[in-house]
Each structure stands twice: as structure tokens, then as C-alpha cells.
């Protein structure tokens, strides 16, 4: 009987270990991407994605070889899914050039949220945010996800000072010092109170020289945003700790890969 129990325990722990961390294939990652934008991205493979309601297709890999900085400026879909975001209520100091989610496929974002200021603005709806009203995209239910975050935080008066005044959601602009659009251009990212923000550029960073990582935002706030599909800029080597953006595919890829910020 004893040996049976030991044998069972061994088998169980082996299964747990193998389920805990597994590198997903590109096809699996694209499948998660497709399912994260239902009714918008229709189908996908490791070669291309197709869009609902149009004949548009987009290659997953555009064939251009890029270094990390070029990926940050103009990534394709494969670049945007390469680094695995680490979620969970634990703070980690990001490794050099570990920027999961900071690499985005801008052509994909434009097809999802709108290709111009006017197109994006047509999808914005008001979201009440602790006495403020934020303009958030309704595409893919981002507004609902942010409302769910708010509803979980509403009873936490001790955390209120971090959440408001917010530094805003919608702002059609480029990333500081880069050619690509900020996710704020799509109404799918929120900046919390700048008073508690640590941003690598404001800390005196220059390309290739990033100041020491700092963060003042409680991990309880981060965990609630992550639960509802938002990634946190405080997980990035090029850190931006007030920044949260809706990237449900990256949280699902992390979950399915069995990785976490909590060791
Ligand atoms: Zn931001």
C-alpha cells in the first residue's frame, strides 16, 4: 500500500511539473490570440491571421529580421508574442531587454481598434473611474474589463490615491522618442496617478541606458488588472509603472505556458 501511494505521488508530481512550464508553439500562441479577439480576428495559423467581416489577412511573420529595439519600433505578430509575460501578485526586477507586451504589431492593433484617430474615437465610450470619466474603447469589451477592475477596487479606499487622478486613456500619439503609436492611441491603455509613477525615461534613461528599476504601485492593484486582461508596464525592463494595457492574449499565453512572476 505504501509503495502504491509513493508511486502515485511520484506520477502526480511529474504531471504537475510537466504541466507547469511548457513552451507553446507559434501555432498555439496564434490560436490564443485569435480566441482573445472573438468576432474580430476570425482565424489563424502560424502563417497568417484573417479578420472577421473582411477579406483581410495578415502574415504572422513579415520576414523582417529585427533586433530588440527595432521590434519595439515596429514588430510583427510573431515579435509581439515572443516574450512571455509573467503575471501574479509578485514583483520582479525585469532582466535586460525583457519587455513582454511592449513589443506590439501596430498593423494588427489598427485593424482591431481603428486605423486613425477618428476611427478609434468612434469606438470610445465613457467609463466612470473614481470621480473621473475615462474615454475607453468598447472594442473587444475593453471598457467592460476596466469597469470590472474598478468594481473590484471600489471598496479599497486605502488604494484610491494610486488610482486617481488618472493620467488618462485615449491619446493619439507616438511612443516618446519612437515612430510607433502608443497603445493610448487605441483607447486600450490606462495610466494611473503620475505621483507614484516610475518611468524609465523620466528617471533619466536614454536608449541603451536604463536606470535602476523602481516601483511604488502595490502588487494588489497589478493582480486585479491582470485578472481582467491588462498587462502592467512595471514588468518591463523599460519600465512604466503607471501603465496598464489590455492584452488578454499575453495573460492567457502565460497561463498556458505555466509560468508566473511568483517563483
Ligand atoms: Zn501609458
Structure description:
The chain has about 260 residues and is an alpha+beta fold. About 35% of the residues lie in helices and about 15% in strands. It contains ten helices and eight strands. The strands form three sheets. A three-stranded antiparallel sheet has the order 1-2-3. Strands 6-8-7 form a three-stranded antiparallel sheet. Residues about 1-20 have low confidence and may be disordered. Bound molecules: zinc ion. The site of zinc ion (ZN) has 5 residues, from strand 6. Zinc ion binds near residues 189, 191 and 240.
Keywords:
disordered N terminus, alpha+beta, 8 strands, globular, 13% strand, 263 residues, binds zinc ion
**Number of domain units:** 1
User: How many strands, what sense, and barrel or not for the largest sheet?
Assistant: 3 strands, antiparallel
* SSE pattern: HHEEEHHHHEEHHEHEEH
Distance between the first and last residues' Cα? 34 Å
Radius of gyration: 19 Å
Shape descriptor reads: globular
How much of the polypeptide forms β-strand, as a percent range? 5-15%
Number of strands: 8
Widest beta sheet: strand line-up? 1-2-3
Count of discrete alpha- or pi-helical segments spanning 4 or more residues: 10
Short description:
The protein has ten helices and eight strands. The chain has 263 residues and is α+β, with helices and mostly antiparallel strands. Strand 2 (48-51) and strand 3 (57-59) form a beta hairpin.
Topology:
Layout: H1 2-20, H2 26-36, E1 41-44, E2 48-51, E3 57-59, H3 68-74, H4 77-80, H5 106-113, H6 117-121, E4 124-129, E5 132-137, H7 142-153, H8 160-163, E6 189-191, H9 219-227, E7 230-232, E8 243-246, H10 248-257
Antiparallel strand pairs: 1-2, 2-3, 4-5, 6-8, 7-8
